[in-house]
Design a protein that fits this description.
The protein is α/β, with parallel strands linked by helices and 347 residues long. The chain contains eleven helices and eleven strands.
């Protein structure tokens, strides 16, 4: 296993946002046919998520366009990671930030936003764990139109996608322009569409882009139903934003909560990798795809956040059991897939 990380030693940084990017690239293993699986570990960003990249991009462009003035007010409807990123950046830049959340947001993410001084408003009824994306968005729109707040509107703001241009450059600088597969979760669509477009602009002409959403999300069709994966997918009734450019996505896959969460737990116990719940689902799908890729493929998985925010849920046996999510057969399946595909590096 290899890790490539940016060293900040010796650099005189004057802003926390200067630590964004240059996250580690982790080579999980090489398959028997010479294909390689890389994980881009975005939890090493400040705030522990890839979403800090797009949060910065949205604020940068708003400032350049004169939409956000010094001392201004920023508002966003968020399931957590975008809100944490905006909260940190607004604290550093001197803006007031209001996050509109529902009970689907992890408590740790809400606490992180509050630690940065954000105002957090929960729109959910007490005791409801359902996503309330439409309600959050309507309130953000109201604060914007009636009270003058600047709504970053991540689902329809193409600065979201442009925030991932540097991520693509980082990948090409480490792997080269012959990346064959990009696999990542789809929520707003910024990460997959922004990274895909930038990689193709950087001469990754054979790139096959795979989007992963929770079973129950409606981005790639099918019936909507509740799901536990946080920060990904679109529930029935919520807007599928313009940032999702279907022409940039070659394939859409759905993953169950069981597959996602049990894969995340498997990686923690077997590979010392603590990834977020939705990242577990993306890695599960990547392993399935690896069975059929041509030899010498180079597959990159965007691990959009780490597992520290899910210690009370995904990594908590009591919570997993209460929600009927423990499935030891998935561990057996992963052992079989990895055993058939690889000789794991380090053995």
């Amino acid at each position: 296993m290899t890790i490539h990380a940016q060293a900040f030693c010796g650099q005189n940084l004057t802003k926390i946002e200067e630590t964004i990017g240059n996250t580690p690239l982790f080579e999980l293993f090489e398959t028997n046919n010479g294909s390689r699986l890389f994980l881009k570990l975005e939890q090493f960003n400040p705030t522990g998520s890839a979403k800090i990249r797009m949060a910065k991009s949205m604020l940068d462009e708003a400032e350049k366009q004169g939409l956000l003035k010094p001392g201004g007010w920023v508002v966003e409807s968020t399931s957590g990671n975008t809100g944490v990123g905006l909260a940190m950046l607004c604290a550093e830049r001197g803006y007031h930030f209001t996050a509109l959340v529902d009970n689907h947001a992890a408590k740790e993410k809400i606490d992180n936003m509050k630690a940065f001084g954000a105002e957090v408003i929960c729109v959910s009824d007490e005791g409801s764990d359902d996503l309330a994306t439409e309600v959050r968005d309507n309130m953000a729109q109201k604060l914007s139109t009636e009270q003058g707040a600047y709504w970053t509107a991540q689902h329809r703001n193409f600065a979201n996608s442009r925030g991932y241009i540097e991520l693509a450059k980082e990948l090409v600088s480490k792997i080269g322009s012959d990346i064959t597969h990009l696999v990542t979760a789809v929520g707003t669509g910024g990460a997959i569409c922004g990274t895909t477009r930038a990689l193709r602009d950087l001469s990754c002409h054979n790139l096959h882009s795979v989007g992963v959403e929770p079973e129950g999300s409606v981005i790639f069709g099918g019936p909507g139903k509740p799901y536990h994966q946080s920060g990904t997918g679109t529930p029935a009734g919520a807007e599928i934003g313009a940032v999702i450019e279907y022409s940039l996505i070659n394939e859409g896959i759905k993953v169950t909560d069981k597959q996602a969460f049990n894969t995340a737990r498997y990686l923690a116990k077997n590979n010392a990798l603590l990834v977020g719940g939705s990242a577990g689902g993306v890695i599960y799908c990547a392993l399935q795809k690896l069975k059929d890729v041509p030899e010498n493929s180079k597959m990159v998985v965007l691990v959009c956040d780490g597992g520290e925010k899910y210690l009370d849920t995904v990594y908590n046996d009591k919570w997993m059991n209460e929600n009927g999510l423990i499935d030891n057969e998935i561990n057996d399946e992963l052992n079989q897939i990895i055993g058939q595909l690889t000789s794991v590096k380090g053995e």
